[in-house]
Amino acid sequence: MNESIINRIRDIYGRPDFTNCILPLEEIENGLNGARYVIISEEPLLLIEQHNDYNRLYYFFNKERELQLQNSKKILLGHMPLYADITLKGDFVFNNSVFDLLGFSPYRVYERKYVINDNLKIRKMMGTKYACVEETKDILRILNDQFDVMADCIPSENELYNMLERRQVLKIDINGDLAGVLLFEDTGKKSYARSLCVEPRFQNSFVGYSLFADYFLRHDANSTRMFTLWVDEANTNVEKLHDRFGYKPDGLKNYVFRIADTI
What we know:
Elements: H1 3-12, H2 25-33, E1 37-42, E2 45-50, E3 55-60, H3 65-75, E4 82-89, H4 98-101, E5 105-116, E6 129-130, H5 136-146, H6 157-165, E7 169-174, E8 177-187, E9 190-198, H7 207-217, E10 226-232, H8 239-244, E11 248-259
Parallel strand pairs: 3-4, 9-10
Antiparallel strand pairs: 1-2, 2-3, 4-11, 5-10, 5-11, 6-7, 7-8, 8-9
């Protein structure tokens, strides 16, 4: 891999005026070496993260960004469906932004929420269990039925398998059927609730609340100090659930854009 590419990324890294990439530099380097990330243009520097059903764009512009944009739209042809995002605090102006000039359309806005684990008083309703690896395909089915593969961070089969082995997936069964799951990731003193999914026919039976309740109860306040999650701002159905557990926005938002067919 060309070391000059990494040096260019390193020079722009962490500057939202010139790049939308917040991935760890080590992950970018490993991805380029392993062909997960593909360079589709060097001027401007455009990377594509390849997935089975879609591609994701990361851009790195220099000070002559406006001039580089003139030819960039043509480069994106052949990589559909394509989406890109940017994470920052506060509101984002789409008109005449990089995404607008590249032909993207606004798609989703996610906000991050958090709550401090201060021995919260939680009422236990239904019991949960850790899901097992034999349930990988069933869990992927309900995730793919209800979430957007492009924007909702649905894990790959291999990634989900690893989460199941690490006991990071809680489930509730009702009458022998998988009623709901909660996927989470623990990192030091923080725990991130990645996905909550309840089968439609069980959505009025306290499954979602019970998954969150047991998720909190399984994390001792001495070892886990903060819980975080990302939620689609348009998903008002889950807002009351988050409020019951004390989640509050921290000001960080993730703006997602996409090109579904052609430019």
